[in-house]
Specification:
Layout (H helix, E strand, L loop, with lengths): L16 E5 L4 E4 L5 E5 L13 E5 L7 E6 L4 E6 L8 E6 L7 E3 L2 E2 L4 E7 L15 E5 L8 H8 L5 E5 L5 H4 L4 E4 L6 H12 L3 E4 L7 H4 L1 E9 L2 E4 L14 E2 L3 E7 L6 E4 L1
Parallel strand pairs: 2-10, 11-12, 11-13, 13-14
Antiparallel strand pairs: 1-3, 3-6, 4-7, 5-6, 7-10, 8-9, 15-18, 16-17, 16-19
Length: 271
C-alpha cells in the first residue's frame, strides 16, 4: 500500500472582526469619515461588498456606500457616497452566515456584527471643517496647511462646503460636488485621471500650487527655477480677478514657474 500525503490545507476557522474605526459607540465623527473593518485573517474579497457590509441611519434607511478591501491589511473600507447628516446616529452591520463575509464557501462569519457611531454636531464644528454643500475642500494629512482654505472660506462668509482628505475621495463622491478647492497636496496618477474626468464633465477645479502631475489639466508647462517672496498684482478688469484688491499682494514661500499651455494668466509678478 502506498501512502499519499495531501499538503493542501483548508481554513476551517471562521473569520473574526478584530477592530473597527471609528470604535463602537464613538461620538463626534466627521460626516465625511470612512468606516474601517479589520479582520483577523484574509477573507474572500468577493464577499466584501455593500451587500455584506451595510450602513444605516437611525430610521434604518440604507445609506449608499462604496466598499474597498485591502488583502494585505485584512481591512475593508466603507465610504459613504455623500456626506452623512450631522448629529445623527448610524449603524454598520458586517454580515455573517451564508450571505455574509467568508473565507471559503462554507467558512463564514458566525454572526452579524453591529457597530454604532454618532456624527459631529454642526454647531460646534471647528474652522477646519465645513457643514457641507456644493464646494469640496480637498486636503492631505501629509500637509496640515492644505486645510487653511477652509478657514478662508469661513472668513469670507462662505459656509456651504465640505472638507475631505484626498485619500478618501473617489469618482462617485467627487461627482456630488460642483467646485473643488484643492490645497497644496501631492496627487497620484489615478487621482489625476479622476480629477481630469470630473473637470471634463463640467467640474471646476481650483488648485493651490498644483504639482507637476496636474500641469496638463491646468493648462501649464513646467519651467525651470522658482521665485521666492515676491509680489502679485491681480488683473481686476476681468474674471476671476473681479472683486479682488487692485494693489500688489505679497506672497511668502517658493512659487513654481510655468509657461501657459492653454491656461490664461490673471495676475502679474512684480520683481
Amino acid at each position: 500500500m502506498d501512502v499519499v500525503f495531501n499538503t493542501a490545507t483548508t481554513d476551517i476557522v471562521a473569520p473574526v472582526v478584530t477592530s473597527t474605526s471609528p470604535n463602537d459607540h464613538a461620538i463626534g465623527i466627521n460626516v465625511n469619515a470612512s468606516f474601517n473593518v479589520t479582520f483577523n485573517e484574509n477573507v474572500n474579497p468577493a464577499t466584501v461588498s455593500s451587500s455584506t457590509i451595510e450602513l444605516r441611519d437611525g430610521l434604518n434607511t440604507l445609506i449608499p456606500v462604496t466598499i474597498s478591501y485591502n488583502q494585505g491589511l485584512y481591512k475593508a473600507v466603507l465610504t459613504p457616497v455623500s456626506p452623512l447628516s450631522y448629529y445623527s446616529k448610524y449603524t454598520v452591520t458586517i454580515k455573517g452566515g451564508a450571505s455574509g463575509v467568508k473565507i471559503w464557501p462554507a467558512n463564514a462569519m458566525v454572526n452579524d456584527i453591529l457597530k454604532t457611531f454618532s456624527t459631529e454636531d454642526a454647531s460646534v464644528l471647528s474652522y477646519n471643517d465645513g457643514p457641507g454643500g456644493p464646494i469640496l475642500v480637498v486636503t492631505s494629512s501629509t500637509n496640515p496647511f492644505s486645510r487653511y482654505s477652509a478657514e478662508i472660506l469661513r472668513a469670507e462668509g462662505l459656509n456651504e462646503f465640505a472638507v475631505m482628505d484626498v485619500a478618501a475621495i473617489n469618482a462617485t463622491i467627487l461627482n456630488t460636488y460642483d467646485v473643488v478647492v484643492q490645497g497644496e497636496i501631492t496627487v497620484t496618477a489615478p487621482q489625476v485621471t479622476m480629477f481630469t474626468n470630473w473637470v471634463n464633465a463640467g467640474g471646476t477645479l481650483i488648485a493651490f500650487k498644483p504639482g507637476a502631475p496636474l500641469n496638463s489639466l491646468m493648462g501649464l508647462t513646467a519651467a525651470s527655477g522658482t521665485l521666492s517672496d515676491k509680489y502679485l498684482l491681480v488683473n481686476t478688469a476681468s474674471e476671476p480677478g473681479t472683486g479682488i484688491v487692485g494693489e500688489t499682494i505679497q506672497f511668502h514661500g517658493d512659487a513654481n514657474l510655468h509657461t501657459l499651455n492653454g491656461a490664461t494668466s490673471n495676475c502679474y509678478i512684480i520683481q
